[in-house]
Request: fold
Amino acid sequence: MNANEATATGPAHRHSLFDRLAGRVTHAVGTPAAFAIAMLIVIIWAATGPLFGYSETWQLIINTGTTIVTFLMVFVIQQSQNKDSVALHLKLNELLASHHSASNRLIAIEDLDEEELLVLRKFYCRLAELAAQSHGLKQTHSLDEADDAHEAKLKAPRKR
Reply:
């Protein structure tokens, strides 16, 4: 299946069980109802403290429960973030590829290592400096256009 086939009929419905579960759990725990249930559990636990004499077993219940939930949620949230990140990068890549004046060198930069990303960051810092020098901070252009425009300005005779 190519990219056109995957998007022509809408999203593919061959999601893994974990993918579907992670999506549902992430959505469910992000609701006000989930927060209210969590608060209710803590309130009930705290209220039962005097009944159990604040025993170690009483404390162990909340400690164990929250530890297990936290441990499992790390994987669920990470899976959801990974999926969202890939989707976002694909959308940005499509925008870059479709815009005639965008720099194609930015497509798939998420695969670069940190050192390569720092090199690109320096280029964009230079672009910001060039924009500031030309008093056009609200204008946008590619690095190549910025370099060309800046060089042309330097070569042009100044009018006073």
